[in-house]
Every structure is written in structure tokens, then in C-alpha cells.
Design a protein that fits this description.
Length: 127
């Protein structure tokens, strides 16, 4: 089962994303900020996909992405935000964010992006 880490300071958003991901066969876990996300990821190597809000207190999604890349991590990152400046978009792409979703987004858009990342071919396995 594909484990997905959801990082968002908004409890309702975390709950909704986890509910939708679980209903579609994924194993989501949610935390409220980037610091908590890095703590979880440091103890569990089974996560491949991280869905993070851009704007969060303590450590933003962009800061999380930057720190994970400094550690040479291979997590697939999906960033989401209700407002993302041009500079933030450019930085996120340069750091290797797989997708940037503008809130509010369609849940089908998120699920399609997650399905692409979770497909065996995306990790180099042959069919």
C-alpha cells in the first residue's frame, strides 16, 4: 500500500485529504507542519509521496521541500496553496516539486497526480 504524508496546518483540510486518499486505496498520515513532517519521515522510510501546504507556521511547504532536498531525499512532493507567488513557484520547480496545486483544486486532480506518482513505473520497476 502506498503511504502518503499529508502536511497542512488546517485540520479540516488534513481530514478531507486523508479521507479521500484512504477511500482510494492509499495509506495517508497527516501532520500539521514541516517540522512534524520531517520527524515522521526520519523514522519511517516507507513514504514516497508528500502532499504539503505551502503556507504553514513553523515550517512552510517550501522550507520542507528545501530541507528534504538538502538531505538528498527522493520523496515526490506535491505542494498546494491558495496563493503562490511567481518566485515561490519558480523555487518549488527548481527544488523538484512534482506538482503545484492551486487551492481550491478538484480532488480528482490531486488523485490523478498521486496515481501517476504511485504507479510502479514511476519508481523504475518493469511490468
Amino acid at each position: 500500500m502506498n503511504k502518503i504524508l499529508v502536511v497542512d496546518d488546517d485540520q479540516e483540510s488534513r481530514d478531507l485529504l486523508c479521507e479521500v486518499l484512504e477511500a482510494n486505496g492509499y495509506a495517508p498520515h497527516a501532520v500539521a507542519n514541516g517540522l512534524a513532517a520531517r520527524e515522521v519521515l526520519s523514522h519511517d522510510v516507507e513514504y514516497r509521496i508528500v502532499i504539503a501546504d505551502l503556507q504553514m507556521p513553523e515550517e512552510s511547504g517550501l522550507e520542507l521541500l528545501r530541507k528534504l532536498r538538502q538531505e538528498n531525499s527522493k520523496y515526490e512532493i506535491i505542494l498546494m496553496s491558495s496563493f503562490m507567488s511567481g518566485a515561490e513557484k519558480k523555487a518549488a520547480k527548481a527544488l523538484g516539486a512534482h506538482a503545484l496545486l492551486d487551492k481550491p483544486f478538484q480532488l480528482t486532480e490531486l488523485l490523478q497526480t498521486v496515481a501517476e506518482l504511485a504507479a510502479p513505473s514511476s519508481i523504475g520497476m518493469s511490468s
